[in-house]
Amino acid sequence: MTSPHPDTWMRVTPKGLFCEPAGVYIDPSRAVDRAIISHGHSDHARPGHRAVLATAETLAIMRARMGADRAGGSQQAMALGAPLDINGVTIRLVPAGHVLGSAQVVLEWRGSRIVVSGDYKRAADPTCAGFEPVPCDVFVTEATFALPVFRHPPAAGEIQRLLASIRLFPERCHVIGVYALGKAQRLIALLRQAGWERPIYLHGALIALCELYESLGVPLGPLLPVPPLQKRGKAEAGLAGEIVLAPPSADSTPWSRRLADPVSCAASGWLRVRQRAKMRGIELPLVISDHADWDELLATASDVQAPEVWITHGREDALAYALGTRGIRARALHLVGRGEDEDEALPEAAPEPAPAA
């Protein structure tokens, strides 16, 4: 008996990818009855679903960000690699290497297999399990950095550039713009691996998720909130020679006045394009990404041995053309609500939460 092609049982709807025989959506853009969530970033994890299936870490992140009452009417934690049968569809979650709890969704029905990667990276990350390629008939991939210009350098080398700058400017504070979920914690862990044992100071908007990571078993070392403004408008010590993590662009707000002549830094894959750093006044751009770069996207398509690749968001045309030259059929899905890149963007800073009474 011939196995059905995945496009006969997995289809694109206005709400997102829908597995028809299982009656379940993968990372839907609107509230649905049953959803499988690949990871906790808000362009994949939306509030209001009646039932949610995800890793325990992703469910914890959703509750922390949305509130328990909006993270799913019922929530089912699924261990990585454990199979689950829904109406004859076998479902497994395998590591995606993107952020803590991130998973690829593997679905098999009548001998046909499709893997929905969510967002992923191939580089090592001390804060989450590494990507595992799964051979399949159709691989669903992102294409955030699907242009040849995007080739991410080793993250350890970028951390060494940061430490060299701190040695060169000991009288200044280094403020690094990072996204609150994934990037902040990865940067902290990379600094610890590089031997930075001193406290790392956090903008208030980053504290809750760092505490959550630690509660989920990811050690981050000593972390402290940035001291409040003193009467004369400056922190007592200004944190000269220290590292501060903050939402992107926080250093351009009045919040930064408490810091000692801050060096503006940011960590993002987009900073491979130097003009982006120049336009935003970033003195020290750190090219550290939680997404696969051009070479990794192509290598992954080869590793999973899929004759067909579906592209959810990003630079679809370039990736589809490159895969076609390698004999792989590729098409863009144009899913609604994707491509926001909230974990890689450099938006205006979020306000710092007010201190508790």
Automatic annotation (TrEMBL):
SUPFAM superfamilies: Metallo-hydrolase/oxidoreductase (SSF56281). One of its GO terms (molecular function) is RNA endonuclease activity. PANTHER family: BLL1145 PROTEIN, CLEAVAGE AND POLYADENYLATION SPECIFICITY FACTOR FAMILY MEMBER. NCBIfam families: Xnuc_lig_assoc. This is Putative mRNA 3-end processing factor. The lineage of its organism: Bacteria, Pseudomonadati, Pseudomonadota, Alphaproteobacteria, Acetobacterales.
